[in-house]
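Translate structure to sequence.
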């Protein structure tokens, strides 16, 4: 007789815990594709261009320019982020990683990591 209420309590308590198997949202190429400009103070001159590569599903090409240098690369969407391997234009091997996350339709949070420097955090807005 008491089993049914105990089962109901156990099921309701099970729903209150953190779900470690929760599915994170998956971003689409449209989230990232386009031309972006930094609005981060003292780094407003940074531009990022992202395009879908037609040769592979989910792969995007990138070009970021700042301080007279251009970095190029490509990467894949990983759940809610775009992860790119970047190299200075003309270099054979990637020497930096960019992780971009969409924050609304027209904003990206970007972190660029280069092995020889501190990470750079940028907020970018979509250019028309």
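Result:
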């Amino acid at each position: 007789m008491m089993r049914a209420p105990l089962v109901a309590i156990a099921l309701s308590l099970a729903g209150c815990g953190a779900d470690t198997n929760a599915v994170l949202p998956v971003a689409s190429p449209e989230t990232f594709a386009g031309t972006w400009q930094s609005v981060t103070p003292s780094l407003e001159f940074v531009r990022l261009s992202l395009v879908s590569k037609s040769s592979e599903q989910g792969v995007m090409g990138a070009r970021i320019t700042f301080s007279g240098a251009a970095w190029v690369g490509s990467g894949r969407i990983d759940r809610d982020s775009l992860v790119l391997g970047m190299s200075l234009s003309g270099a054979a091997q990637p020497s930096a990683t960019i992780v971009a996350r969409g924050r609304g339709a027209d904003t990206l949070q970007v972190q660029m990591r280069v092995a020889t420097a501190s990470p750079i955090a940028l907020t970018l807005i979509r250019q028309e």
